[in-house]
Each structure stands twice: as structure tokens, then as C-alpha cells.
Amino acid sequence: MNNYELQKKIDVVLDEEKRAYAAKGRIRGGLGSMNIGLQSMPNNGWTNEGEIPQLLFDKSDPSIISSPNATILIKLYSSLTDEGKRFFTSYLTTHLRKDSPYASIAYFIFFVLYRLGEAVQALQFARKALSGDAVHGYSNLLGALSMIVSREYLHIDQKTYDGIDLSLRGDTEHNFQLTEKVNLGRLKHLERDLSDVSPEINADREKLLTLWEQKIGTGVVANQIKEIDEFFSEGDFSPTKYATCIGRVRILLVEVLKSIGKAISSEKKDGKISDGSNEHAVFDYLRTQKFLSDDEWNLVKALYGLTSDQGAHQMVAPREYARIAKNMTYEIALLALTKFAKVEKKS
What we know:
- The chain has helices at about 5-25, 70-80, 80-95, 105-115, 120-130, 135-150, 160-170, 180-195, 200-215, 220-230, 240-270, 280-290, 295-305, 320-345.
- It is mainly α.
- The radius of gyration is 28 Å and the shape is elongated.
- The model has no long low-confidence stretch (mean pLDDT about 90).
């Protein structure tokens, strides 16, 4: 498909959106084919006297806001070559200007570009080329973005928030409390990130690192713990991120127990545990040597199974599942190293 043919296909959808906006537009509080309007606020914007207004919905959910026309354009985009995709986003962006025949549906064009990861670039262009238009195109765009933040605040990353904030700096257009919502969105990110923080677990993690350095040495375990903790400071868990994180947790569990097993085997000079020993041989050896009781051996085996990368339990969010597995592994590793320190002291 050449660019001319692609442009005609895009225009078909944009023309239909203009028709939708003519029937359900700003005068009625609507935004054409989109299932939100300019007043789509929590509790319909109602706030009891003396209460702080709620600007964000209780749950961040990217599946709520939709438009059948936007879905068509996004599907069209997905069918294109890389060159076609570049033309697609460029063509839509250039219509975020005052003299465009599609200025009135800038909200729609922006929404499509937002879904394609071009929100900041689109907003920056619209601020320069569309602001002050006569058909409320820029105002509607800001209204749509405000509603998006209300609904999807945890699914907007910090870089995008920074870009929005910078793009709107000094802008005098009414923005439907977008500035306040961006700040609240950042606050929700911070709140979520800190939900994983446990002073007790953190204290035990430091004990684990100290014991490891004293009894085994520096290096791999400290680096693994640092990598694992970094996953929890980087936002939501995609399936790939979950699998990588839970895999690191499993490796940490095995590495700590294998290092202990190698040290015991070396002390006994039995040659049964080496770098090449698999995890099950390590677990069984530690049980045979009475280092792990039967209950502890069962717990280790269960935790090893829990840290499978085949996916979190469907009733538990991936981030929460990984957090629980991480914390349990830290505690089991600390228990094992503490026991090893006592055994070593006796010998």
C-alpha cells in the first residue's frame, strides 16, 4: 500500500469521526465515537462538602476508554510496514493544527496517537500548531487527555508524565485539572512502588548480604538481590518482566543453597557437590547431611516450585506474586546462612 492509498484509508475513518462528533460533540459534553465525555469524572464530578475532590478513578484500567473508529485505525496501523507506520503517525500528527479539516476531532487523533505511544510528541505539536483554534480542538484534546489520566494513571509511565508536564508548562488553556491529575498519577505510582517496601524484610535482606559476605564472599548473590529489587522500582509487571524476575528469585535460592552445599561438601571432602551439581542434588544433599530438616527440605522444594516462571496464579497479580516469592526467598536464604554460620562456628 503506497502513502496515497494509506492516506485515503485514514481519511475515511477521520471523516466518520467528524460525523460522530457533529452528532455527539462538545455542546452535548461528548467526544464523538469515544465512550467518554468531557465530564467523565469519578462520582460524576460530585464531591460532598468538606471532602477532597476525587480526580482519579479507584482502579487504573486501560481497557475502559474506547472508540470503534480508533480501533479501526489501530488495526490498520498494525498491518503496516515500518515505513507505513512512520507515515501513519506523521500524517495524523500533522492534522493537530488550526487549519486542518480535522481540527475539531483533535481529541480523537490524539487518542489514537496515545495508544500508539506517541502521546508526548502529539501534545507538543498540538500546543504549537493547534492552541487557540476556533473549533475547540485543542481544548477537547486536553479534555480527552485529562480523562485518560483519570482512567489509566498507573499505565502511564513516568517519562510520559514528565513529557506532559513539560509540554503544558506556561499553557493558559483550561486543561480540565490535567496538571493536578498528572501529579496525582505520579503519587499513585509512588504509593504502588512503596507498597512493596517492608522494613522487616529490608532489615533481613541486609543481614543476608552481611552474612553472605562474611561466610561465602562477595559477588553473585549481592548482584542478584540488587537486580531483583530493581524490578520492583520499575512499575508494572509484564509477563516477560514477571518471568525474568521470578527466574532471578529462583536462581538466588539455588545459588545460596548450592554455595552452602559446596562448603559442607568441601569440609567433608566427599566431592558430592560442585558447581555442576543440579539444584535437586543440592537440596537432597543438604537433607542427607541433616543441614535441612524434613520440614525445611519440603519448604525449600515448595518455594522452588513457587518460583517457576510459568506464570503467577490467576487470582494473584504478577507483581504481588513475585513480591511474596522474593520475600520468602530472602527469609529462607537468611535462615540457611544463619544455620550455616552456627554449624561452621561449632566446627
